[in-house]
């Protein structure tokens, strides 16, 4: 099975000021976000990426460029509308402090499967489109590059949380328990019988174990009873 690296874009001017940017054009990384994206690019430089799929918004394009230019062989890049930010509708552009006073705020926090943003989309619809897109791209990468292929999807916090919730088999009402910080790295593998969540919301650590081993099979699909020996024990991350 292929390996998916989910990367959230670096911090933006809207993140820093507490504004829900949504799909507002022109929202860019701030200085901290640029540094975060660069560090993530350096962290991923040791992993030959077969492809990068990204949200069309500027902050994801900026983050993608920091990753791609540090690759020894820059991979193909595909813009995917289905992993764009949630359509927050009338909430877009408003401050989080202001939004916390809305009646629907508690629904978004406690019962997100029932939340639909006025003038926008529901959280359920957001999850459905993003999960379908990620799984389709994962299958395409594996078909084109083999079971050891590694690829990245550069997207947004709520998108990544929704994808992780699906991979865990969690009800959507629990997705707020997942964290996806700016420029964080989350790793998932989609096996034939179930997804494998390798790590969530990481900011540091060596990722060289993800690099495919020439001539080797991809990662094992079955779970190791007792937890296994871990990726450091076998080149290529097989346990």
Chain-wise SSE layout:
Blueprint: E1 3-8, H1 13-17, H2 31-44, E2 51-54, H3 58-68, E3 76-79, H4 96-99, H5 104-110, H6 123-145, E4 150-155, H7 157-168, E5 185-190, E6 195-202
Parallel strand pairs: 1-4, 2-3, 2-4
Antiparallel strand pairs: 1-5, 5-6
Shape: globular
Query: By helix and strand content, what is the structural category?
Result: alpha/beta
Low-confidence stretches: 233-239
**Mean pLDDT across all residues, rounded?**
93
Order of helices and strands: EHHEHEHHHEHEE
Number of helix segments? Answer: 7
Helix content: 25-40%
From the alpha-carbon coordinates, what is the Rg to the nearest angstrom?
Answer: 18 Å
Question: What profile does the largest beta sheet have?
Answer: 6 strands, mixed
Quote the distance from N terminus to C terminus.
14 Å
Strand order of the largest sheet: 3-2-4-1-5-6
Give the beta-strand count.
Answer: 6
Strand content range? 5-15%
Short summary:
It is built from 7 helices and 6 strands; from the N terminus they run βααβαβαααβαββ.
Tell me what the structure shows:
- The protein has helices at 13-17, 31-44, 58-68, 96-99, 104-110, 123-145, 157-168; strands at 3-8, 51-54, 76-79, 150-155, 185-190, 195-202.
- It has 239 residues and is α/β, with parallel strands linked by helices.
- Strands 3-2-4-1-5-6 form a six-stranded mixed beta sheet, sandwiched between helices.
- Strand 2, helix 3 and strand 3 (76-79) form a beta-alpha-beta unit.
- The protein is globular.
């Amino acid at each position: 099975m292929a390996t998916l690296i989910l990367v959230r874009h670096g911090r933006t001017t809207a993140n820093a000021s507490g504004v829900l940017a949504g799909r507002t054009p022109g929202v860019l990384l701030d200085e901290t976000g640029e540094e975060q994206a660069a560090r993530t690019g350096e962290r991923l430089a040791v992993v030959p990426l077969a492809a990068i799929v990204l949200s069309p918004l500027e902050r994801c394009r900026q983050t993608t460029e920091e990753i791609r230019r540090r690759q020894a062989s820059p991979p193909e890049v595909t813009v995917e509308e289905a992993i764009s930010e949630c359509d927050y509708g009338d909430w877009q552009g408003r401050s989080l402090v202001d939004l916390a006073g809305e009646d629907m705020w508690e629904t978004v926090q406690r019962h997100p499967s029932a939340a639909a943003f006025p003038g926008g989309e529901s959280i359920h619809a957001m999850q459905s489109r993003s999960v379908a897109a990620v799984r389709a791209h994962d299958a395409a990468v594996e078909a084109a590059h083999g079971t050891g292929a590694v690829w990245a999807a550069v997207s947004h916090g709520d998108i990544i949380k929704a994808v992780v919730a699906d991979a865990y088999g969690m009800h959507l009402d629990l997705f707020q328990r997942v964290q996806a910080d700016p420029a964080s790295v989350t790793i998932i593998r989609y096996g034939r019988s179930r997804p494998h969540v390798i790590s969530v919301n990481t900011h540091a650590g060596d990722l060289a174990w993800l690099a495919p081993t020439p001539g080797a099979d991809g990662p094992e699909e079955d779970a190791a009873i007792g937890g296994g020996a871990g990726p450091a024990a076998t080149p290529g991350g097989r346990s």
